[in-house]
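tool=predict chain=A
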Amino acid sequence: SGTTLNMGGKFTEREYISWVIKGCLDSGIYPMVGDTAVDAFLPTNLEELKKAGGEGIAFIKPWKNEEAIRKIKMAEEAGVFAVGMDIDAAGLITLALHGKPVGPKTVEEIRELVESTNLPFILKGIMTVEDALLAVETGAAAIVVSNHGGRVLDQTPGVAEVLPEIAAAVKGKITILADGGVRSGVDVLKMLALGADAVLIGRPFVTASFGGGDEGVRTYVDKIANELKSAMILTGCRDVKSVGKGVIRY
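tool=predict ok
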């Protein structure tokens, strides 16, 4: 999200997010819509998601809990099936430049957010075993192992470096999602092999949608799916559940 903040402003937020939502749903995957330093963007994103039946996930920035809960309720009204918070956005430069009051969260504060909704709650921005274990304590349904595209803290390890130890600590206790540098179906296979239950992709959807609208998104998803299928065949994986560490060397 954030066409004027992050993408040069060639297209409106509504154009961009409508292409992503339609392209994803037509391809059989779920879109995620986000919150930004521009107050109007989240309502716009949720309006477009509601038009599509709410088939997606909304991520909220780490505002003070009163404001975060207000936005969670907005997401509920749009019909989303899960909500999340990218807690590492507490250090995001675009929010700081706009004077937005975000900050880190305690276990108790996150638990309050989890308990404010009946929807599954996802914590994005987990990069250590310690934080993953704390996420389990909050009652969150899932974590996203993510360094926010490397944009919040220089010298942060890559997700693939920390994912195996996090998976070893919390696999089976909480759903593990992962993102960061995933550009091909082979990259998806790698993340699954390192311990992710599912994989998220962000930036390539900007290129795909700006270049071809919802059709561009569908084409990109088809590419990823075909590459993943081919990689699974060549590594002897009958299904996603059978993907394990043995398919890669690291």
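The longest strand covers residues 121-126. The chain has one domain: 3-236.
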